[in-house]
Write a structure and sequence with these properties.
This protein has 352 residues and is an alpha/beta fold. The protein has two domains: 36 residues; 309 residues, 4-Layer Sandwich (Purple Acid Phosphatase, chain A, domain 2), CATH 3.60.21.10. Helices cover 32% and strands 28% of the residues. The longest helix has 31 residues. The N terminus and C terminus are likely disordered. The protein binds zinc ion. Zinc ion (ZN) binds next to loops.
Length: 352
């Protein structure tokens, strides 16, 4: 009787444990697939600075007959990210038209497969070279990128009067982008054109960021501005970037100076004043042949951390990840102690 009773108890315990284990396995199996809320997924956005697919870079691509060449060493990082972003400094043009007088850039259509191969999803086209291929070049660039599944941000087609804000959704997270330039033409900002988003009207910028904030979970504001070949951002740029954060941006991504500039954490959010060059033919100095890739990690619809990946540009065209010694010296220019920045909830709350 005693043995039978304890045997029964053991059997009951075994059955209970088996059932518990079964339920737990079921639970984790369910959690492992469809029951996970999209908010629990981690999303990565990677950003780079200026991309010139013209001039010497164009010649190098033509010589090698390989549009992927400039991106061969960085593709693993760019294509791995859920969203890859950069500033395309040269409008796209279909014919091999002669370069006109002055600094005029063009990205021939045959170079575009390189951008696709690299893994770019969003490209800022708001820069001082937006009109280098005339009015038609702006529309053509927006359309051509779109036909290659790349979203152009910061310029819009002539008939398009809608806001410049663009939203791209990945893993259930709406990521908003706005891109501004200090100039629509390469004239220092003298002449405006409604096809290019510029920083000239702070109230309008504030409104646009606010609107985008309402329609997205995370907001990136790109800024093509600042004195060229300078380490320190000037006052106007600092004011614009801080105002963008106040208006609702989660991060500001700067470029145009061709040099890396410092990183500021303002109200718990990062401002990268300049990521420097990425694909550019300015190998004449150390400063202009270095740049930063920044990886943003997003969880539960907030940027939780960002990691800096310094690059060195080789052969006047092709960035590669900097080795450890070079990485240290590049990171020093950002003013950060580490290549990783973490953002806490409190900081995010404080920044709201
Ligand atoms: Zn520029």
């Amino acid at each position: 009787m005693g043995y039978a009773k304890s045997g029964f108890r053991l059997l009951s315990l075994f059955a209970f444990l088996s059932l518990s284990l079964f339920l737990e396995q079921m639970n984790s199996a369910i959690l492992g697939c469809s029951m996970v809320s999209p908010e629990d997924h981690e999303l990565t956005v990677i950003a780079v600075g200026d991309i010139l697919l013209s001039r010497h870079v164009g010649k190098t691509i033509d010589l090698s007959q390989d549009p992927n060449l400039p991106f061969e060493n960085t593709r693993p990082w760019l294509s791995e990210a859920d969203i890859a972003f950069g500033n395309l400094e040269s409008p796209i043009v279909s014919g091999d038209i002669p370069i006109r007088r002055g600094v005029v850039f063009k990205c021939l259509t045959r170079y575009v497969p390189g951008l696709v191969y690299a893994g770019f999803d969003v490209l800022s086209t708001a820069n001082n070279h937006a009109f280098d291929q005339g009015d038609r070049g702006v529309d053509f660039t927006v359309n051509y990128l779109q036909s290659h599944s790349i979203l152009a941000v910061g310029t819009r087609k002539k008939e398009d009067q809608a806001s410049f804000g663009r939203v791209i959704e990945r893993k259930g997270v709406k990521v908003g982008f706005l891109a501004y330039s200090y100039a629509a033409y390469n004239d220092g900002g003298a002449k405006e054109n409604s096809q290019v988003a510029t920083w000239h009207d702070p109230e309008k910028v504030k409104e646009e960021i606010g609107q985008l904030r309402d329609n997205s979970d995370v907001v990136f504001v790109s800024l093509h501005a600042g004195q060229e070949y300078r380490r320190k951002p000037e006052r106007r740029k600092i004011e614009f970037a801080r105002a963008a954060i106040e208006a609702g941006a989660d991060a500001v991504i700067g470029h145009h100076p061709h040099w890396i500039q410092p990183v500021e954490i303002y109200r718990g959010r990062p401002i990268f004043y300049s990521l420097g060059n990425f694909v550019f033919d300015q190998g004449h100095s150390q400063e202009t042949s270095q740049g930063l890739m920044v990886e943003f990690r997003i969880k539960r619809k907030q940027i939780r951390s960002s990691r800096l990946l310094p690059v060195a540009i080789e052969r006047y065209c092709c960035p590669r990840l900097a080795d450890s010694q070079l990485k240290e010296s590049i990171l020093e220019k950002t003013g950060l102690d580490s290549d990783e920045i973490f953002f806490s909830d409190e900081r995010h709350e404080a920044g709201k």
